[in-house]
Design goal:
Radius of gyration: 20 Å
Structural class: alpha/beta
CATH architecture: 3-Layer(aba) Sandwich
Oligomer: single chain
Number of strands: 10
CATH superfamily: Phosphoglycerate mutase-like
Number of domains: 1
Helix content: 25-40%
Shape: globular
């Protein structure tokens, strides 16, 4: 399965919905008004900060001197704006496949209202974030196994050895990491709980099938990734650029699978006993 040489995924810049969500998490749900709660998720615009983040990320991408053979953007407004503000010399095609995860009935609801109206579902989210689905929404596992695999299959058929750029959303990027980097359920849970793994606004995930130290050596599969995102240092905008990380498919012996199973407790002993 020959994949693109480079695959860049960019999360959109800060949106007005992000402002609402941040305030709600901090304990202030006042921005969730009768008007804002009726705005479709696809319609939210970038803030001024989001525009600046996109410009910084775009300048850094341009510095990589990579000519993109394909550029794809989510159909959501905040992604369209981000793609435009990157300022790159590409022609964009839109795709619903890389849209935001569906939050179903809680998409326009504050954290406080969600906990009050869907207390059992909220508890499930905390206990099993990989397979949890919002009411009438998608789980990360759903996004990964349906939409992410869909687009990766398309890239395999249509863009082997080429360079591809996508402007998408944080949850879709999270699901892409799950698939491409071949995380186990346990690794997903560990990373999901790790605050250093957050996908910030305008984070750039760069996947590569080439060796950074030997660009002429290209593998069939994407096997390295690095994360970068806009930051302000002493009042000046720059990109934080992470280290390259390697990944590969993992295999397990029967004993190793039993070790994974033993990490979970038994609730009923001697069920078939006397």
């Amino acid at each position: 399965m020959v994949m693109p040489r480079n695959l860049f995924l960019v999360r959109h810049g800060q949106s007005e919905a992000n402002i609402m969500q941040k305030a709600s998490k901090a304990g202030d749900p006042s921005l969730y008004t009768e008007e804002t709660m009726t705005v479709p998720d696809r319609s939210w615009r970038l803030t001024e900060l989001g525009v600046q983040q996109a410009k910084v990320a775009g300048a850094w991408i341009a510095e990589q001197n990579i000519k993109f053979d394909r550029a794809v953007v989510s159909t959501y407004t905040r992604a369209r704006e981000t793609a435009a503000m990157l300022g790159l010399d590409v022609r964009w095609e839109e795709s619903r496949v890389i849209r935001e995860r569906s939050w179903g009935e809680i998409g326009s609801m504050s954290k406080q209202d969600f906990a009050r109206k869907y207390s059992q579902n909220a508890q499930y989210r905390d206990n099993d974030p990989l397979y949890w689905s919002p009411p009438a929404g998608e789980s990360i596992a759903n996004v990964a196994e349906n939409r992410v695999r869909n687009i990766l299959s398309t890239l395999h058929r249509e863009n082997p050895r080429e360079n591809v750029l996508m402007v998408t959303h944080g949850e879709f990027m999270w699901a892409t990491r799950l698939v491409l980097e071949r995380w186990s359920d346990e690794e997903f849970l560990d990373r999901d709980a790790d605050k250093t793994e957050i996908i910030h606004n305008c984070t750039v995930l760069q996947y590569s099938s080439a060796d950074p130290e030997n660009p002429d050596q290209v593998h069939e599969k994407l096997h390295r990734v690095r994360r970068s995102w806009p930051v302000q240092v002493d009042g000046e905008w720059t990109m934080f650029v992470g280290d390259w990380e390697e990944f590969d498919r993992k295999y397990f012996t029967g004993d190793e699978l039993l070790q994974k199973a033993d990490a979970n407790r038994h609730f009923f002993q001697d069920t078939f006993g006397n």
